[in-house]
Amino acid sequence: MRMRTKEHDVIIVGAGPVGSYTAYQLAKRGLDVVVFERNPTIGKDVNCTGIISTECYKRYNLADEMVLKPIQSISAYSPSGNCLRYQAHAPFAYVINRNMFDREMNRIAAGERATTYLNARVKETAIVNDAFQVTVRIDEEDMEYRSRVGVIATGFELHQIPGMVSLPVEHFYGIQTDVSIKDVNDIEVYFGNQVAPGSFGWVVPVGNNSAKIGLLVKNSPSEYLKSFLQNPFVAQRLGSSAKKIKCSPLPLRRIQKSYGERFLIVGEAAGQVKTTTGGGIYFGLLCAEIAADMIMKAFEKSDFSEKTLSGYEKAWRKRLDPELKAGKILRNIYSRLSDQQIDLLIDLAKRDGVFPVINKTDFDWHKDLISYILRHLITKKLLRK
Ligand SMILES: Cc1cc2nc3c(=O)[nH]c(=O)nc-3n(C[C@H](O)[C@H](O)[C@H](O)COP(=O)(O)OP(=O)(O)OC[C@H]3O[C@@H](n4cnc5c(N)ncnc54)[C@H](O)[C@@H]3O)c2cc1C
Questions:
Q1: Which residues pair with 124 in a beta bridge?
Q2: Which is nearest to 315 in space by CA: 262, 253, 270?
Q3: Is the CB of 38 inside a 6 Å radius of any atom of ligand 1?
Q4: Pocket test residue of 38, 136, 203 for ligand 1, highest count of atoms within 8 A of CB
Q5: Residue nearest to atom 29 of ligand 1 (CA)
């Protein structure tokens, strides 16, 4: 039996924060937008610490009740337990309730009349007869939808959709759990090859003697988390055993190409995440704005060709590439350091007046701090020793 096909201006695949925010941006400018989300609810089982910068918090005018904890201080621990602590005069970041945030992004899209279908998994995408076409599984039935342009905002799972990128992207695993814990006020970051080789572990307070504890690693995430929870700095303050553990892949680099004839790829699906920390909320939302501007231009010209849509990639790479590249260089060098070298690095940073540089560094934009660490600490001092 032939499937009935429904037509819209824009189809968005994925109602994470980036998909919903793109929907909001386009619907408020008058387009007929439909969003497909495979989960039965928005924000279901999200695996995220929920840290966003003050810049992001203000830009999106987030409600106070979404904030679990404002963050004003950070403590970085070397492998031997040497601590570099930074205390700011005002919050530089916020831990937000990710579930509530995702729902809010979708609510504002709905307020502009974008329609979201839940329990709607997109099985296939294709460009057919001058349209972006998807096959969606809704209520045990396959349906076909067409639009003039499509936006893929599926998070890391992009490569699972036939017709999209087929190669698995180089990635880390982000593993995390919620715990009850005493005496945590700062964001705590732990370095060292025992904790997370080439990366870091974290304890992030979320209020009421609770925290999110997690780490980023390339292999064996469960083993590393188990050992991190037994780390004496952490274990002695733990009040209860870890609750549900969540683990998901996080891209380590952007994809080669984030556009094609009649479609754009945004958010984590395109690798729009910080190469230093894996944070992807803010970069994804900024790119959603760029994608929406590009799509509006395409509608004005009635031109959805690959050539026209390539402007999206040029624009977002201009904004993010310097950051992504700097982060990648730091990560490559850092991943080769021994525990002794990391110890020395933190010691040097403490003695060497890194604080004025940190004071001038924005929470989202790390390029200047990275270039200081590379030029001043690693190359001049650490590697010479
Ligand atoms: C442990 C961990 C901690 C993190 N902490 C932070 C942090 O503190 N700060 C920060 O900024 N970032 C953090 N991140 C990254 C952040 O969570 C992501 O960058 C962000 O969720 C990306 O948003 P998105 O909308 O692009 O994708 P997602 O949030 O992944 O949303 C994609 C949506 O698409 C849906 N979908 C997928 N495939 C289909 C399909 N075929 N059909 C229909 N729907 C589909 C999914 O169900 C999902 O709802 C963390 C990540 C991890 C793993």
A1: 135
A2: 270
A3: yes
A4: 38
A5: 16
Q: What is the Å distance from ligand 1's center to 100 Cα?
A: 14
Is 281 in contact with 56 (CB distance < 8 Å)?
yes
Q: Is residue 174 helix, strand or coil?
A: strand
Q: What is the average pLDDT across 240-254?
A: 85
Q: Could you read off the pLDDT of 168-179 as tens digits, one per residue?
A: 578 899 999 999
Domains of the chain in start order, with CATH, are 5-45+99-169+252-320 (3.50.50.60), 69-96+170-251 (3.30.9.10), 329-382 (no CATH)
pLDDT exceeds 80 at position 191: yes
- Please state, in angstroms and as integers, the Cα–Cα distance from residue 373 to each residue in 328, 362, 366, 382, following that order: 13, 15, 10, 10
Whose CA is closest to atom 18 on ligand 1? 280
| C-alpha span between 51 and 54 (Å, rounded) | 10
CB of 327 within 8 A of CB of 275?
yes
HSE-up (13 A, CA, CB side) for residue 332: 7
Check if 249 has its Cβ closer than 6 Å to any atom of ligand 1: no
The answer to whether the CB of 336 falls within 8 A of the CB of 342 is no
